[in-house]
């Protein structure tokens, strides 16, 4: 068997394509593509993602400033992408008002996902979870992560708004990452967007911004667990402040959590070929 045949055979075996045309995509498959996307602008990455994922692409937004920027970019480019928003039931009124404005003024369909229980029902059954570190993780799982999973299977790509300038675990954020639970690719098109880039874009394009940002909230989550921050504090100091440094992330973004490098998802084989720019002839 020649070297070329070895490569082709290995490719066929690795992808293990089944009768439904599904194949395995691993984190390591994205390395070279991530490198090539480093030179692209957010708008270029957005257009590329639309060309790859088509109507299987959506935006994920918590209605914070960066999410509003992504929604504006999509709308301005004429991409009428659906927006996934998880309503935990304990959001600030300003966040819900921002959601409604984004939908109305940017012409984007906002799909609101909700937990199975109200906060009152959850508290009666489980107590006030967010008063302990373990409880906070459970509460976020019930009120944020699990509702998002209701959209599993509807989309192969999710446009997110995480940035490396957010710091901490996001400092080395990849542009493309796998979301095993959602079985999709997360596209962090603002990964290289610095704070100055964000401020310039918001001002120049008059982006709809959650008014809480002007009230000292550098990041915005549930009303129970979010406070303003002082100018000299880290950006995420206002999240779960009552729990100290042991609680920093809710878990809805896989790249915020420690994940195995061997993580993989199943996607249509032709989509993986488009994503990675491959042309493989399986008729040989």
Summarize the structure.
By secondary structure, the chain is an alpha/beta fold. The chain has helices at 3-15, 31-37, 42-53, 65-76, 93-106, 119-126, 133-148, 195-205, 269-276, and strands at residues 22-26, 57-60, 83-86, 110-113, 157-160, 176-179, 184-188, 264-268. It has one domain (26-276): HUPs (Rossmann fold, 3-Layer(aba) Sandwich).
Helix percentage range: 25-40%
Q: What's the order of the H and E elements?
A: HEHHEHEHEHHEEEHEH
Which architecture does the CATH hierarchy give at level 2? 3-Layer(aba) Sandwich
Quaternary structure of the protein? single chain
Domain count:
1
Principal-axes geometry comes out as globular
| CATH class term | Alpha Beta
Q: Give the number of helices.
A: 9
Q: What ranges have pLDDT less than 50 throughout 5 or more consecutive residues?
A: 4-17, 280-284
Ends: how far apart? 13 Å
Radius of gyration from the CA trace?
20 Å
Largest sheet: 6 strands, mixed
What portion of residues belong to β-strands?
Answer: 5-15%
Whole-number mean pLDDT: 87
CATH superfamily: HUPs
Structural class: alpha/beta
């Amino acid at each position: 068997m020649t070297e070329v045949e070895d490569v082709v055979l290995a490719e066929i075996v690795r992808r293990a394509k089944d009768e439904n045309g599904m194949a395995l995509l691993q984190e390591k498959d994205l390395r070279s593509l991530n490198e090539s996307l480093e030179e692209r602008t957010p708008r270029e990455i957005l257009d590329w993602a639309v060309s790859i994922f088509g109507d299987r692409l959506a935006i994920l937004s918590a209605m914070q400033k960066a999410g509003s920027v992504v929604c504006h970019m999509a709308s301005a480019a004429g991409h009428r992408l659906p927006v996934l928003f998880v309503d935990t039931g304990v959001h600030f009124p300003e966040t819900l008002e921002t959601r409604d404005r984004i939908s109305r003024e940017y012409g984007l369909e906002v799909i609101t996902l909700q937990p199975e229980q109200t906060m009152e029902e959850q508290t009666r059954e489980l107590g006030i979870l967010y008063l302990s570190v373990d409880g906070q993780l459970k509460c976020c799982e019930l009120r944020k992560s699990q509702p998002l999973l209701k959209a599993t299977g509807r989309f192969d790509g999710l446009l997110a708004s995480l940035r490396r300038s957010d710091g901490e675990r996001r400092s080395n954020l990849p542009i493309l990452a796998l979301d095993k639970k959602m079985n999709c690719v997360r596209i962090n098109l603002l990964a290289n967007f610095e704070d100055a880039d964000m401020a310039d874009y918001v001002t120049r394009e008059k982006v709809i911004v959650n008014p809480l940002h002007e009230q000292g909230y550098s990041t915005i989550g549930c009303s129970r667990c979010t406070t303003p921050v002082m100018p000299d504090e880290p950006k995420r100091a206002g999240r779960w402040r009552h729990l100290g440094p042991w609680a920093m992330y809710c878990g809805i973004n896989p790249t915020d959590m420690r994940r195995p490098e061997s993580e993989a998802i199943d996607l249509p084989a032709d989509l993986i070929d488009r994503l990675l720019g491959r042309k493989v002839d399986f008729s040989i």
